[in-house]
Write a structure and sequence with these properties.
Length: 723
């Protein structure tokens, strides 16, 4: 009995294996996986499965499929800009088609060899292969695709900045007689000619080509293409300072985009419904098939039991009943688990989308607020330096406080977003922990005195002098905790304790404790105080102010550094925050860094600075701040004009706004560095979540000033280049 069951199980398993191998080792299977990864932009996986399909074709002697798959691999490499790998596969495709009947794929392979050689600058070879592709098209008697290949060839020239060859090729397309098959290609050709003429600043021909593109597009009513053409016309009128027409076309562009978005959303809803109905139908079919198989199995099992000896009937009946019940329970449990997994995946995806949307929104808002804040802070600084009346001084000081408060608030939002989006990097540099804590104590003595608090610092002498870690983030943590303790305590005590918790070889664990005798936190609020914008209660927020983000940042930074913060508190008696952090021990002495002296006005006097800034208010503020230090300031409002001016005129320094109309500040800097590598260039930016200092410096900038900037920091950064 056992032997028969074993043979049956083995046969069933071998059948399943052969069926699975048949399904998973086929050209269709590999193609499906490659296309799925291409649509998700997972190019390495797409290459892997395309190579799998190539191997399958070679092993099974599918020569035509092998040629098609080799061409597909070449296209993936071409779209990634890996032209050498692309050429290798395209040449292999052509050689495979030499023994096969010519087809459109061979034409495309010849054409892409030309495009790849164009991209690498080998125009002679490219021209030869373009000709071969055109000759093969004539041989196949396919004329409709000839214009499409010409269009692709022209795009390759344009991508390689060979505008003359690109324009000549586009013009051959538009000269051909109109027919229903080539209207779209001619529309695209007119549009590309308009872009080329705009780049060459030939204004009359630019608008003629764009209007022609609109006329041809009207015949096919391609709304996405019309939106692109209308946007290009808007930009053309903006460059020519015809702002009324520019705005009119831009408004039409946004109307088209909104209409297309509505159409897309409607289609997505319909597709989702169809997909749901299809899945529901498939689920019912599978369920029905499963029930039929189960009934068939039960019938066969009953027939087998009836043949057995009478002595075994009662035992086998009980066994079959037990197996039957177990099978039902297992199926039910499996079905329940699958449903729960689906629900968890959907919930996870929704949470991730919501978190990403929140992060992007806060980052965008924070970034956009920096420019007007720079104007507020800058104008306040200028007015305060301009000897205001006594009754005006109080209002200006209030305005300055509000501007600084908003700046701190925005910086804290950006800090949280950086940590949440995993863009915050942990430094590992040598520093003296004891010296860092003494400096923090000195900087907060004034706040302690204002609230009449006794501020005490206890540092364990056993803590090694030189540790390796992130002193910037550690300073943020301790400053926030002490600042909170001093703010919520009056006529009390604030103690900061640092002890060596443990030490093993080159690693040390330090225990930190911040204790205050302040207002305390209710027990039901001990967890929520670490949430964003939370301060325990509305009354606390109204009385003590603040953003409610300090403890959120502290918790996230401690977790980023590998620790965990703990809180004990009692209302009216005070709070205690504790955490432990691990550091490596640096046994080499720290380098003594000389303190940089602050700037003086003589360093700035009679210097000439070029300011590249498109915002009129920021132009006025920055010019006034520079002129207050006897600096000559000249202003340009776009990157193109700045590059041309600097070719004929020299300045002592360039202040470059990063976000400019036309070419942005980073591109302008790269162009300037081609002919001027000496003049200091300092970036002015309302730095966002996706920007960082190292990224901006990589374009050739010498330093970065973040908007809204503090006047003293602004002058100090400039002055250090005039020592």
């Amino acid at each position: 009995m056992k032997y028969c069951l074993f043979i049956a199980v083995c046969f069933f398993n071998s059948l399943l294996y052969s069926q699975a191998k048949k399904n998973t080792d086929s050209l269709t299977y590999y193609n499906k996986l490659a296309n799925s990864n291409l649509s998700n932009k997972k190019y390495n996986q797409a290459i892997f499965y395309t190579e799998k399909s190539i191997n399958f074709c070679e092993e099974n002697g599918k020569k035509e499929n092998l040629a098609n798959q080799t061409f597909k691999l070449g296209k993936i490499y071409y779209n990634q800009g890996k032209f050498e790998d692309a050429l290798k596969n395209f040449h292999k495709t052509v050689s495979l088609f030499d023994t096969l009947k010519p087809s459109c794929t061979k034409v495309l392979a010849l054409h892409y060899i030309g495009a790849a050689n164009t991209a690498t600058g080998d125009y002679k070879t490219a021209a030869a292969y373009y000709t071969k592709a055109a000759d093969l098209l004539k041989e196949l008697n396919i004329n409709d695709n000839a214009q499409i290949l010409d269009y692709q060839k022209a795009l390759a020239f344009k991508t390689n900045n060979d505008l003359k060859s690109a324009a000549r090729t586009f013009k051959t397309i538009i000269k051909k007689p109109d027919n229903t098959a080539n209207i779209k290609t001619k529309t695209d050709a007119y549009y590309q000619l308009g872009l080329i003429e705009s780049q060459l600043k030939r204004n009359d021909s630019t608008i003629i080509y764009f209007n022609k593109a609109l006329d041809y597009n009207a015949k096919i009513n391609d709304l996405p293409k019309k939106a692109k053409i209308v946007l290009a016309i808007s930009q053309y009128y903006k460059q020519n300072k015809n702002y009324d027409l520019a705005y009119s076309y831009l408004d039409e562009h946004y109307q088209l985009e909104n209409y297309l978005l509505k159409l897309k959303n409607a289609k997505i809803d319909l597709d989702e419904y169809e997909k749901f109905k299809k899945n529901q139908s498939l689920s019912n079919s599978i369920k029905k098939e499963s029930e039929e198989k189960f009934q068939l199995k039960t019938y066969r099992y009953s027939k087998l039991v009836s043949i057995l000896a009478i002595a075994l009937i009662s035992i086998l009946s009980l066994l079959s009943l037990a197996l039957y019940k177990n099978n039902i329970i297992r199926n039910q449990n499996n079905l329940l688990l699958r449903e729960k997994n689906k629900e968890l995946i959907l919930a996870k995806n929704k949470a991730e989308k919501a978190s990403k949307a929140r992060s992007e929104f806060l980052s965008t808002v924070s970034h956009e607020l920096r420019t007007p804040l720079n104007a507020i802070n800058g104008i306040t600084h200028i007015l305060l330096e301009d000897k205001p009346k006594k009754k005006q001084l109080k209002y200006l000081e209030s305005l300055k406080f509000s501007g600084n408060y908003l700046t701190t608030f925005i910086n804290e939002i950006l800090e949280i977003n950086k940590i949440d989006s995993t863009k915050a990097e942990v430094e590992n540099i040598s520093f003296n922990l004891k010296e860092l804590l003494f400096n923090i104590q000195s900087s907060l003595k004034e706040l302690a005195t204002a609230n009449k608090n006794y501020f005490n610092l206890e540092i364990d002498k056993a803590i090694p002098d030189n540790l390796i870690g992130d002193p910037t983030k550690l300073s943020q943590i301790i400053l926030n905790l002490i600042n909170n303790a001093l703010k919520f305590t009056q006529n009390g005590h604030v103690n900061v304790i640092a002890k060596l918790y443990s030490q093993e070889e080159d690693n040390a664990t330090v225990y930190f404790e911040i204790v205050d005798t302040g207002i305390g936190i209710p027990e039901d609020k001990l967890q929520s105080v670490f949430e964003s914008f939370s301060q325990g209660s509305i009354e606390v927020n109204r009385k003590y102010g603040g953003t409610g983000l300090g403890l959120t940042i502290v918790k996230k930074l401690i977790e980023l550094l590998g620790g965990e913060i703990k809180l004990k508190s009692e209302v009216g008696k005070g709070s205690t925050f504790t955490f432990k952090l691990n550091f490596k021990i640096n046994n080499e002495p720290l380098e003594v860094i000389e303190e940089v002296k602050p700037y003086n006005d003589k360093q700035l006097k009679n210097k000439s600075i070029l300011l590249i800034e498109d915002n009129k208010i920021n132009q006025m503020i920055t010019r006034k701040m520079l002129e207050n230090k006897n600096i000559t300031c000249e202003i340009v409002d776009n990157g193109e004009d700045a590059v041309e001016l600097l070719k004929i005129k020299r300045f002592d320094m360039i202040l470059m706004d990063v976000h400019l109309p036309g070419i942005n500040g980073t591109t302008a800097t790269k162009l300037i560095r081609e002919f001027d590598k000496a003049t200091p260039i300092i970036a002015l930016t309302a730095i966002s979540l996706d920007e960082n200092r190292d990224m901006l410096l990589s374009f050739g900038m010498d330093d970065v000033i973040t908007k809204p900037f503090v006047p003293d920091d602004f002058y100090s950064t400039i002055a250090k280049f005039f020592n």
